[in-house]
Specification:
Layout: H1 3-24, H2 28-32, E1 35-43, E2 49-50, H3 51-62, E3 75-87, E4 97-109, E5 112-126, E6 129-142, H4 147-154
Parallel strand pairs: 1-6
Antiparallel strand pairs: 1-2, 3-4, 4-5, 5-6
Length: 155
């Protein structure tokens, strides 16, 4: 593995960390800046959200209060087992790179463990910056009545 490949992997890890940080804190505009304009996210069992406006609707809906008058949920995503596969060979002068990633996540709320699952991502890199092209999210388990259960029921 050369220095450029190491830099690419670290930049992708930073991209995923920022996704979780910005999402958990409701920083929607910064979160949207992590995606290419025609990116999409698909949460297993739900319609795909496409493009920046589709992602804005998805993320904006996720930070709503669970019910009228209730406090906003505090959540924290934790990602592990992040495997990154670079396509081709990364070099310092690469203009367009692609990579894929697989990871596991769990989410804590102010009440404890809320939900867990897997991410399957496609990333693209250009001029030293990596962005999401797509993200598939599986929710493998959740706590009844928690943040994910409430959001998934809303559709």
């Amino acid at each position: 593995m050369n220095d450029s490949e190491l830099k690419a992997r670290e930049a992708i890890r930073d991209l995923v960390a920022r996704y979780n940080l910005y999402g958990d804190r409701g920083r929607i505009e910064e979160l949207l800046a992590l995606f290419v304009p025609d990116a999409w996210i698909e949460v297993e069992g739900r319609p795909r959200n496409e493009g920046i406006e589709g992602l804005r609707a998805l993320f904006g809906g996720a930070i709503r209060r669970p019910k009228e008058g209730a406090a906003t949920w505090r959540i924290a995503h934790h990602v592990s087992s992040h495997c990154i596969d670079l396509e081709g060979t990364a070099t310092d002068d690469s203009e367009s790179l692609r990579a894929s990633g697989h990871s596991h996540y769990l989410v804590l709320s102010q009440h404890g463990l809320d939900h867990w699952g897997r991410y399957r991502d496609v990333y693209c890199g250009a001029s030293g910056r990596w962005l999401f092209e797509s993200r598939r999210v599986s929710v493998d388990g959740l706590v009844p009545g928690g943040w994910a259960d409430t959001n998934l029921q809303r559709g």
